[in-house]
Amino acid sequence: MNTLSKPAPVAHRRFEALDSLRGVCAILVVMFHMPVASHWRDWGFIQHSYLFVDYFFVLSGFVIAHAYANRLTSGQDAGRFMVRRFGRIWPLHLLMLAAFVGLELARLMFHFDSAPPFTRDRSIEAIFTNLALIQAWHVHPYLTWNGPAWTLSAEWACYLIFAGLVLVAPKRFRWIGLVLAIIGGVLVVSYARRWMNTTYDFAVPRAVYGFFLGCLLQGLWTRIPRLKGGAATALEVVAIVAACIFIGYAQGPITVAVTLVFVILIWVFAGEDGALSRVLDHPALVTLGRWSFAIYMVHMFILTVMMIVARKLDWVPVRRIDFGSVWLNDLFAVAMFGFIVAVAVVAHRLVEQPAQRMIDRWTKPKAA
After folding, report:
1. Is the separation of the CB atoms in 212 and 178 below 8 Å?
2. Backbone angles phi and psi of 250, in degrees to 5
3. Is the CB of residue 232 less than 8 Å from the CB of residue 217?
4. Nearest to 146 by CA among 136, 138, 156, 137
5. What is the reported pLDDT for 9?
6. What proportion of the chain, given as a percentage, has pLDDT over 70?
7. In DSSP terms, which residues pair with 5 in a beta bridge?
8. Most CB contacts within 10 A, which of 215, 245, 271, 277?
9. Secondary structure string (H, E, C) spanning the chain
């Protein structure tokens, strides 16, 4: 049997295996932030799981280019695109920002801890930069309010650049984007104090680096013959193992190469040709992928409230929740993760999905 074939046309397909991987990456980011002294807390793989955010950037560029590269032919199209992208990310961002502000108002009224309300990363002015999604454009010297939302701010910048490039140079935007990606990567490796673990300061160069490599990948991947059958499965296994090993051990400037690792990973799984892709196509994992944005957005608020309660109950002997038994800590961490997913599902169904449907109706082109 021939192990090489040209990819089938994919004009309207949904990349479900890639979506499932996004769900897995969201779980790993939550595990990275989980302040519990579990068995896995100090594993190198978990300590470096902040790098999975860069999968989001590459995947976003790949999917956005796939969906919109040939559809933005006028300023009206670009405006509709920006409204739709804003409508995808802003409602849930607004919900969580409101939750954090509500927590701060409770701190002001009830003085339940020693943290001064509405100061530093919880300042009044940072509310407005968060509302405008510019908080990670090097305007604050630290993360503000819902920390993980820095990625939305950085992606918003990528959307603006993408729309402008497609309008100005529709045939060459991927190659111009490649130049921007190289510049972004060079800026991160040269000036970011913690290289790829950069958020509020070099967030936009980090995101541009991944997003526009994803755009370039989308323009090239259908032209490259792909492995089929057992050979495709072997390639998927190698790609997953290589990515896990890299993330488990990467430190310092070499972390900037993680974006290239994810470019390869997305290229391998975009065709869904092997057995691992079929596993990732399982409805449960695909559903997890669809919940991933909500999981990512709600988890920090829940962990923040959890730490406030834990300190009141003397569950934090040093910096992490620790009940004196690592097995009990594991159970608590799993329970907290289950609670995060449950809250995320509610937010997804009651806020994220209705807002997306509403924005789609508002921006649907009028019939001629």
Report:
1. yes
2. -70, 130
3. no
4. 136
5. 46
6. 96
7. 226
8. 215
9. CCCEECCCCCCCCCCHHHHHHHHHHHHHHHHHHCCECCCCCCCHHHHCHHHHHHHHHHHHHHHHHHHHCCCCCCHHHHHHHHHHHHHHHHHHHHHHHHHHHHHHHHHHHHCCCCCCCCCHHHCHHHHHHHHCCCCCCCCCCCCCCCHHHHHHHHHHHHHHHHHHHHHHCCCCHHHHHHHHHHHHHHHHHHHCCCCCCCCCCCHHHHHHHHHHHHHHHHHHHCCCCEECHHHHHHHHHHHHHHHHHHHHHCCHHHHHHHHHHHHHHHHHHHCCCCHHHHHHCCHHHHHHHHHHHHHHHHHHHHHHHHHHHHHHCCCCCCCCECCCCHHHHHHHHHHHHHHHHHHHHHHHHHHHHHHHHHHHHHHCCCCC
pTM over 0.85: yes
Backbone angles phi, psi at 226, to 5 degrees: -115, 150
Return the sign of the alpha-carbon dihedral for residues 162, 167, 173, 174: positive
Query: What pLDDT is recorded for position 229?
Result: 84
Res. 12: pLDDT tops 90: no
